[in-house]
Amino acid sequence: MKNKISLLILSVIFTISCKNSDSPGKAGESIMNSITGKNTAAQVISYYNTFIDYDTNASKKLNDFFKRDFESLSDMVKNKKKSSRLIVWTSFIGIDPRLETWSGSKKVNLLKPEVLLDKTLAEKVRPLVEKMQDAYKKTKEGYLDFKKYFKNEDYKDDAWAKGSEYLKTMEDNANAYFDNKNKFFTLFSSTIDKAEEDILADHPIRDEIIHAKRTLKLVDQISVLISNEKINITDIEEAYKKLEERLNDSRDMDLTKLKAQNKDTKFTDFYDEIDDMLGVMRKTKRDGSISKRDAKDIYYEYSSIVGDYNRFVK
Q1: Residues 140, 173: contact at Cβ < 8 Å?
Q2: How far is CA 115 from CA 12, 40, 43, 108, 121, in A?
Q3: Which of 178, 170, 166, 164 is nearest to 229 (CA)?
Q4: Half-sphere exposure of residue 238, counting CA atoms within 13 Å on the CB side?
Q5: 151/143 Cα distance (integer angstroms)
Q6: pLDDT the model gives residue 294
Q7: CA dist 167 → 123, 138, 144, 146, 177 (Å)
Q8: Low-confidence spans in the chain with pLDDT less than 70
Q9: Residue 4: predicted pLDDT
């Protein structure tokens, strides 16, 4: 199983950066060119924020499973014996992610993207959401099947053969969920960027918000590099330099407009967190490699950065 620790991107007023955003795709370019008014841009953002809400819930449950129970289940199947570890079986508890939720005064259904999106983009988006929904459902079902299999001690009858099947179902479908999620972000990247810029056209601190947004996109790209099974330290070095340049740019910015909107402190808090992340990266990459523990430290800093970004743009 690759390192699938997916960062929990939070829904905000002017949504935040997308995964793998350098290759938007033709569908993304098509709808991007058609966004000319704030009403249309608001529809795009409404759909996107609903997707973020769905993914935040789904990704958290999947990540919790891999943090809590996956290793124990894998060890039992591999060693063909019951684990001495306590398995709490708390993964996937709570309300499942919802494909239809309220956005303001309207309901948004992720399986009906044509209501809010350009037809060309909607036809590309729908199958990705359907595959994510199916993959999440099958991962959870595999988990519950394994739980029943374990508690009934059915592994004594087949030497863990069925447990191996359940494990493969969970792993394959979790990978499918994250792969289709990344395809969605790639497809939607230029669309949401253009929509946000349209919405922000008359905003008094438009430039500052866009500056922070693009900085966060660099941080998000670092998270993708860190999540790879084989981390390329050269790519990390290059990403570090780009992020450091953004931090230095922020230090030279005039904060007059931000002060007028009472946003200057939140803006500087955001970039202070960027500075902290750069510090962690410097510490972890000195040995020429980044361990899983190092990656977790970087992810921890990322979550703080997202929180400060959200507080700034609200």
Answers
A1: no
A2: 21, 11, 9, 8, 11
A3: 178
A4: 7
A5: 12
A6: 83
A7: 32, 11, 11, 8, 15
A8: 1-39, 229
A9: 45
DSSP secondary structure of the chain: --------PPP-SS----TTTT--HHHHHHHHHH--SHHHHHHHHHHHHHHHHHHHHHHHHHHHHHHHTHHHHHHHHHHTS--SSPP---TT-SPPP-SEEEETTEEEETT-GGGTS-HHHHHHHHHHHHHHHHHHHHHHHHHHHHHHHHHTTTHHHHTTHHHHHHHHHHHHHHHHHHHHHHHHHHHHHHHHHHHHHHHTTT-TTHHHHHHHHHHHHHHHHHHHHHHSSS--HHHHHHHHHHHHHHHHHHHTS--HHHHHTT-HHHHHHHHHHHHHHHHHHHHHHTTSS--HHHHHHHHHHHHHHHHHHHHHH-
Q: Is residue 136 classed exposed, middle or buried when 0-12, 13-18 and 19+ CB atoms within 10 A define those classes?
A: buried
Q: Could you tell me the pTM of the whole model? A: 0.76
- Looking at residue 20, what is its pLDDT? 33
Per-residue pLDDT tens over the stretch 144-193: 999 999 999 999 999 999 999 999 999 999 999 999 998 998 899 889 88
Cβ atoms of residues 289 and 231 within 8 Å: yes
What whole-number distance in Å separates Cα of residue 238 and Cα of residue 29? 27
- pLDDT tens for each residue of 186-198: 899 889 888 988 8
Which of 130-137's residues contact partners 24+ apart within 8 Å by CB, and which partners? 131/176, 131/180, 132/55, 132/58, 132/177, 132/180, 132/181, 132/184, 133/99, 134/173, 135/173, 135/174, 135/176, 135/177, 135/180, 136/58, 136/61, 136/62, 136/96, 136/97, 136/173, 136/177
Contact (CB, 8 A) for 195 and 44: yes
